[in-house]
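MOSC domain-containing protein YiiM
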Amino acid sequence: MTAAVVTQVWSSATHSFSKFARDQLRLIEGQGVEGDAHCGVTVKHRSRVAVDPTQPNLRQVHLIQGELFDELAAQGFGVQPGGMGENLTTRGIDLLALPRDTELHIGADVVLRVTGLRNPCPQIENFEAGLLKAVVGHDADGGVVRKAGVMSIVLAGGVVKPGDAITVRLPPLPHLRLERV
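Tokens:
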């Protein structure tokens, strides 16, 4: 079994679709990635701000498993890590299978709480034709499957850098499925 690890870290001070590679990120408890456009206690995603700017920010840190980029490359897509706006690219952990409220302990200090799934938006299709359909599918029962990563909040801040180990701490039973946030 492969150990869970952060492979790359990303941020952007603007609401750009893609983010920029960094040597490390500083995560701030209760806010998110220092200097990132989505950092804050309340929502920063523009469509959510338009509805209610006082909503709590459940999307402070966005994680995508690197295995998704392998899957997309095998289908002929050119999107690379960081291209879909994640803050952390991971390997060795099935992020989409985690229950809500799972804690991810990263490196020496950082603790994230998984809040839900990223809901892929039309910007993904604008980035590369056909990509939206590749990251939103349906299961055998017709349910929507969202593959564009998970969102989280920062419970304990600190520095995250490529190579940091990820330890998973599941919440108490019963486990709740991830829903879009």
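The chain has one domain: 5-169.
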